Structure prediction request, 491 residues.
Amino acid sequence: MNRANSNTQNNRIPQMSTNNQFSKPVISAPNAAPVQRQSSRDQTALLQNQSLKIGQGQGHLHNEGQGEGQSKNSHQNQAQSQMSPPQSTNESEAELPMELLQAGWRRFWSKREGRPYYFNKLTNQSLWDLQQLLDTQLDPLSDPLGIATPSPPPMSPSDIRMTRLSVDIPSPQVGNKRRSSGEALASPVKRPMQQPVPIISGRNPFLYPDLPEPPRRKVMCYPVLLGVPCPRMPTVEHHIEGETTYVRFKGETMKINTSHFQKLEQLYRWNCKDDPRFDKFLARVWCLLRRYQTYFGPQQNEGFLLQGALPVPVFECLHRLFGVTFECFASPLNCFYKQYCSAFADIDSYFGSRGPILDFHPVSGSFEANPPFCEELMEAMVDHFESLLAESSEPLSFIVFIPEWRDPPTEALVRLENSVFKRGQVTIPPFEHEYRHGFQHICPKTELNVKSSHGTLVIFLQNEAGFVKWAPTTERVNELLLAYRPKDKLN
Prediction:
């Protein structure tokens, strides 16, 4: 037997002394089990030797520290004051069944925990509870895998928790002292960090001052300009497949008809002055498509009515007969003229948007207004148009297209028909005119025009100078109605 196995035996297995006596080891905790393991042949021989000597009555067990000298007796008394009363081998083994003893289990006392525990000198396994030891025993002959053996009951929190005796719970005074000492340690670090806060807050208006109100003067209409320079834009990829163009950023792909993609290029070239080399064009196109897709909604065909537009022949007729060059409600995706107002000035302005219509104050010009069918927005539109017409003495005209909802009539429809600036009106019956699809930038050409299921009311709002210049005469109105008719009706 090597030295490592001998040391292991001295720690765990009772040894034969010169006077034929054994000494019982005292283990502080089950975790103090020996690291090295004896061979099965040495353990079997040693157990047989011990059983033979115990059966012959050649010795008895006693606590570590017993001897012939007086100094060893005093050490024995001190050890017994901290431990349980010594137990003989017969008493220790009498508490365990014979099958557990044959399996290598012995009962020992834990000095630290003040309770007995069970240690297997063959497998180095430690357990606190004898019942758990009995429940985990398997029959190696009939059930070697433990399939037929019932599973042990779940352990309670008291069994899992390893209690420690003589551990004082901190008093509130100790907790308060620790808190105060922690604040004292953190204050030198916290105080310098708080000092720059009011300084930065005070300098913020000087670093980012509010932009002054532009003076009210008559200028040519121009796109919205952002007061803060645009940051560096990420890289965006795109590829063209026939009539569809795909714009991709971080695995998310937006699609647009190639004709509308080329339209965005032309609008960007006309209106964007800070990117002549088109370095930021693809990134801004992706932001534009993502913004409007979120605005429309996640469901299929959701929100397409919000972007319905007039047919191209109607726009051409309005420009030829009434001098219209501006759309009050449009977007870069569905606009016909290169001047328009839209909902999102921060991204639409790169493609020619003049901002929201309620923030737009023209002095002269002829405008087309086809608002989304939102009653609150249509009422705000009427207030804004009447205010502009009342303030301007130059030619100013608004041709408004709204649905003819008369059951019950909307507030905007009633106010438009009773407005002092109304110069004429005409009603187009349902299913006798068309609108362009709200998703015209992604839908195929065969689905571009959609017949209207409701009547459309066209109202001309003009001041005196606008009425003189763009009066809605009978000939002009009839030509407008002819342009509104679907192509199948013309044939």
Remarks:
- Residues 172-194 form the longest helix (23 residues).
- The chain has a mean pLDDT of 77.
- The chain has 18 helices and 15 strands.
